[in-house]
Here is the input.
Amino acid sequence: MNWNGIVSLFIGCIELLLLINLLSFAGKNRFNVLAIILVALLFTYQTLEVLMCMMGYDDAFVVYLAFVVISFLPPLSLMLVAELLKYKNKLQYLLLLPPVFFAVYYKIMISEFVLTKCTILYAAYHYPLGDLFGAFYYLPILISIILLIRTVNKTSDKKTKIISSVLLFAYIFSCIPVVTAFILMAYKNYTLLSMIESVMCKFAFVYALCLSFAAIYNSKKKDERNNP
Here is the structure.
């Protein structure tokens, strides 16, 4: 067996436990359902990386599936923040159009998906429209961070402030590889950029933990209001 995906296996197992915990104990309001979906997507990506790096299923279709999975993370994360802040606007569903576009376009261009490298810590890929994909990927994350910073500084609601603070920490921590990659890119070093999706999803393990805390905390607060 190829143990190059051992970190993905470890993280995937923990994310599976988090997912089971959320399905069992988190209330099924909209915020919690979005949190559950996000943890499920993170777990699915790690599973696909295990298939690619440990079991040798590294054909273009599996790489394509991995990118489809992660492309839905930023817009759903922004929708989660919007739900936390009680932004009610059906136009938010338009956020799902870019990942749907990439899913369709990448299916047409599936032969260009290549897993170029697997190590114990990460997988590196080659795929088309990398710059455009990155723009649509990071913009919702940036907007989410801005909204959470404003909320942490301005809200007087204890529950919203705590959940916003936890999610903000998770976003900032998960973005450390991205910031590092762009700094290195300024010095003509593109090594980290080629593996950024994989590394970022490893760092997003903290995001999965924070999502789990937020959903369970949200459920407990709701129960306390219903049972004074």
